[in-house]
Amino acid sequence: MSEDCIFCQIVAGDIPGRTVYEDDTVLAFLDANPLSPGHTLVIPKDHHERLNNTPADVAGEVLSTLHELVPAVESAVDAPASTVAFNNGEVAGQEVPHVHGHIIPRFEDDGGRPIHALVNDRPDLSEDELDAIESDIVAEQA
Ligand code: 5GP
Ligand code: ZN
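Above: the input record for the complex with zinc ion. Below: its predicted structure, written as tokens.
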């Protein structure tokens, strides 16, 4: 537990949360400032700042919980779709530094936008630049 982490305090029961799923590793609860009805956060109970610091088995539990909850959340609020995403790191908009996946139910004409609208200007990358990025990412995993 990280003492000054809001989500660790929710896990510990020190701050109330509207829990929708819990097991030994994972907690899911309603977002206190929802972007839509049913906006749900899925977190590991242990404090890991972002996906990069999260052990693979724990990340797998978070993902499988997201997989279980997405249809339940959509059905509960009668949503035909959802945006499922992580703000992974401060520059990407992560405000709470305890890794969490968002399930944001989406509705017809909700005025929301797709992930493709995250940036204003897309980079104009050449085929060579794309090739270089491809091989760099492959090399990073070696
Ligand atoms: P982030 O920007 O870090 O990806 O998202 C953090 C989310 O946590 C926001 O959607 C925000 O509304 C939610 N949040 C922040 N503080 C609390 C809290 O104390 N309780 C709950 N349930 N959600 C919170
Ligand atoms: Zn934490």
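Notes for the reader.
Residues 2, 5, 7-8, 47, 98 surround zinc ion (ligand 2) (CB under 6 Å).
The helical segments are 6-12, 56-77, 127-140.
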